[in-house]
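WARN retry 2 of 3 for item q-0093 after timeout on previous attempt; input resubmitted unchanged.
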Amino acid sequence: MAMTVPPGQDEQVLYGNFAFHVQFVDGAVPFAPRGGASDTLLGAFSEVSGLEASMEHKVLRQGGVNYGARMLAGPVSFGTVILKRGVARSQTLWAWWSMFAGADGIDDPRPIPANRCDLNIGLIGIGDAGQVSSSGAGLSTTAVRNVVMGWKLVNAMPVKFRVGDLSAKGSDVAVEELHLVHEGLHVAGVAS
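OK item q-0093 returned
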C-alpha cells in the first residue's frame, strides 16, 4: 500500500510539548479574563491537558454478514481542558470563573453567552531565520519562535477552579487550575 504525505507536511518533524502559548479570543466587552491584561500574562501556563475529541461509534449488524459488523459514525464529545499555572497576584482566571459560578458578588443575569470565548493554543517551534547584519557583513542566524501547530477551542466556559495543595514541607510553586468545557476542537494554524 502506497501512502503519500500531503504537500507542506513533513512526517519527520517532531515537536516538543514544552513550548506553547494560550490566547483568549474575546468577542465581548468587557471580557473578564482579558480585563486589560496582556496576552503574555494570560498565556503563561505551565501545563495544558485534555485536548481531545472522541466519537461514539454505532455498531450495525447485517444479516448474512458473519465477518464483523458495520461501524457508523456517532456523536462527538470533547474532553475537559485543564489549564495550570503558578499562583500569581493576578486573579483574572478566578474573576472569569466566578462570573459563571455567581461567586463574584454581583447580582446580574450572568452567565451570559457573551462571557464565553474561543481559546487558541499554539505549539511553538523554534527555527532559524537568516538576517543580514547591520554592518552588511553577511548573514547571521537568529532563533525565531513560530506557531507550528495550533488548536482552537470553540465557545469555552470555565467549570472548575482549583488551587493545588499547600504544604509547608514542600518547595514547589503553588499551582492553580482552571477547567474548561467547550463546543468544538479544531486544528488551526498549521505551518507549512
